[in-house]
Specification:
The protein is of the alpha/beta class. About 35% of the residues lie in helices and about 15% in strands. The protein is built from eleven helices and eight strands. Strands 3-2-1-4-5-6-7-8 form an eight-stranded mixed sheet, with helices on both faces. Helix 7 links the parallel strand 4 and strand 5. Helix 4 packs parallel to helix 5 and helix 4 crosses helix 10.
Length: about 270
Amino acid sequence: MDFTEDQIQRYARHILLDGVGGEGQAKLLQSKVLVIGAGGLGSPVLLYLAAAGVGTIGVVDDDVVDLSNLQRQVVHTTGAVGRPKVESARQTLAAINPEVTIVPIEDRIGPANALEMMRDYDIVADGSDNFATRFLVNDACYFAKKPLVSAAILRFDAQLATFKGFPGGDADGPCYRCLFREPPPPGQIPTCAEAGVLGALCGMAGSLQATEVLKELLGLGSSLSGHLLIYDGLGTLFRKIKVKRDPGCPLCGAHPAIKDLSIHEQASA
């Protein structure tokens, strides 16, 4: 594609990169990413994807901006308190890069709408803050055959993984259920609202998540598929653990028990 003068200036540092160049930047401009959650993780993911020139970014969130969000959810401002997060995010991202199309989806992702939400996107970034949504997004991405870049944070720790274990994806790659078979019992693991989280940690984890999304879109470097990246913020330690597909996984294993998203309808009934 032919770039305008403004685009050449805006994306100059990408165009200079070996492995990206004009061809890669053009690919980003034509890419579509669905981001689940406009909170602590979704904020930096959204900011960097918009700045990178990802052409279409869908934002899924049914919450409104609260003053307590602003310690870490940097896509929102004090003036946005009380407004829907998807609209607040849309306004911020439009100010950063007006060329990017932002699709605000003020809804909660669920078994009835997950596949429809994902249908037109190339990749999904999950920044949700609860296990029920993480398992649902994993299962939906598997059935929709969409790569998933998933991150989680709590207190001073973070973890990140890419899942492409669907048919036609990474033949040896695991899904989220290969690591964690079922959601933990309610109340067993505290949420950020209950245990707290260091705000800057969200920026670090979300930036890493955005990096992996961009790598997948561009086909650059080594995919994080088949690995789990763990960060200990207090110890300043990164660990990259190799994770294999579980043959007994109920979703992607040799004899899958989960055939569709109805399992989540039953769980929420």
